[in-house]
Amino acid sequence: MLDLPYVTAFSGLRSIGDGRGVIARERRGIAIATVMARKGQGTALAATVKEQFDINLPLGPHGSGGDATSFLGTGPGRWLVTHDAGTPRFVDSLAQQLDGLASVVDQSDSVGLLRLSGPALLEVLAKGVGIDLSATAFPAGSVAVTQIAHMGVTLWKVDETPTIHIAAARSMAGSFLHWLEASAAMVGLAVDAEAQ
């Protein structure tokens, strides 16, 4: 039997040009799930999430939690959950914890995550994102399900540095990287050393 090596979604991430206008790091080994509340179970689901994770389940396009575990509101009764893979089989455990309250779908191998920051980040993202990402319109904690250069993404603002996390379908990762490299070429794209 042939044992194929695992290749991350953004394994082609590389530094481009001079300067550090945008700093990118692939978030590797992250468990990702879509959680959809069952009919009439929203209140019970929120109580269980609070009890199990000490996280207030966000209503609307906002995120709660931190790098270890985050619940990101992506639609009515729907969240994208990310978890640092320190806990084995996190999505299976999450499905058991939310049994009867929500449907849980594992997205870990179908989605890639990038952490982007840098002084020119908003300028670069404006070349492909059709929404206002300024601090006034899109403050820290905000979540958007949108498009970047016609590719569907979920993005959320972690802080006002700004730091923005972007989740994109693994099948679009190569196209997304091509767009990012071209858009950041003038200001420079630096790969965070932690990604290596």
Structure write-up:
By secondary structure, the chain is an alpha+beta fold. The protein has helices at 42-53, 90-97, 121-125, 173-184, and strands at residues 22-26, 30-37, 63-65, 69-75, 78-84, 102-106, 111-117, 143-148, 151-159, 163-169, 189-191. The strands form two sheets. A six-stranded mixed sheet has the order 8-9-10-7-1-11. The protein is globular. The two termini are 29 Å apart. The relative contact order is 0.24.
Instruction: State the separation between the terminal residues, measured CA to CA.
Output: 29 Å
Q: What best-fitting shape do the alpha-carbon axes yield? A: globular
Total strands: the figure is 11
Largest sheet, in brief, is:
6 strands, mixed
Which architecture name of the largest domain does CATH use?
A: 2-Layer Sandwich
- Could you name the CATH homologous superfamily of the largest domain? Probable tRNA modification gtpase trme, domain 1
Number of domains: 2
Biggest sheet: strand arrangement: 8-9-10-7-1-11
Q: Are there runs of 5+ residues with pLDDT below 50, and where?
A: none
Overall radius of gyration: 17 Å
Summing up helix and strand content along with how strands pair, one would put the structural category as alpha+beta
- The top-level CATH class of the largest domain is Alpha Beta
Concise structural overview:
By secondary structure, this protein is of the alpha+beta class. The protein is built from four helices and eleven strands, in the order ββαβββαββαβββαβ.
